[in-house]
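Title: [Solved] Putative restriction endonuclease 3D structure

Original question kept below for reference.
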Amino acid sequence: MASSGWTRQQSLVAFSLYGRLPFGRFHMRNPEIIQYANLIGRTPSALAMKLSNIASLDPAITSTGRSGLSGASSADKAMWQEMQQDWAAFSIAMAQAEQELCTTSFPTAIDGPSNLITSKIAEVKVRIGQQFFRDAVLSAYNQRCCISGLANPKLLVASHIVPWHEDEHNRLNPHNGLALSALHDKAFDLGMITIDEDYRVVVSSQNTDTNDLFFDTAIASFHGRPIVLPEKFYPAAKFLAFHREHIFQQA
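Solution (posted by the thread starter after getting help):
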């Protein structure tokens, strides 16, 4: 195992794991940490320590009294800022680092005209970014809908607060995401529900007089209830405000 300083490639893999794993699984016995430690040429304990150092840079972790470790390097701090400033580019960099370490080429060698190749590469990058966004958001909420508590991963959606088409810069920012059931994701997208400044569910009064028992039970009954907050990647106040102002169906 290497004992020298962390390379950028190794650190990118660590940041990728940080996005996907719950804080409570940052330990050297975690099979995924063992697997990736072997991949990048580090010990499981070193990788687990790296994740805890990254956690010390995350306000969502430190604001709850959990401090992680205090050994974050200047390179870690610079990469944290790089990630915050451009989630799309950083998610691609993390995916490429993993692929290179797995000796799998990033899929740029695609047969066809150059414009088709460019199109295919763009599609691959979008898929990679979307997968990172989903993994990061669902991991932050411990694979549960923040409104209902539903924990079946097949029925969970990493829902955008500000829609994909409205804000290109924050499409892949996990702070622009909520873990929702497919039903609540649809209601949120349609503006039938929103989240207030105190992280409570608000159901639009336009939809409450339905004489629909299922709607009353599955959606309207959550009005006024607090959502379960994530352990990292808190939903940003400015994104929630946008949803309330531009998407929510006001009375």
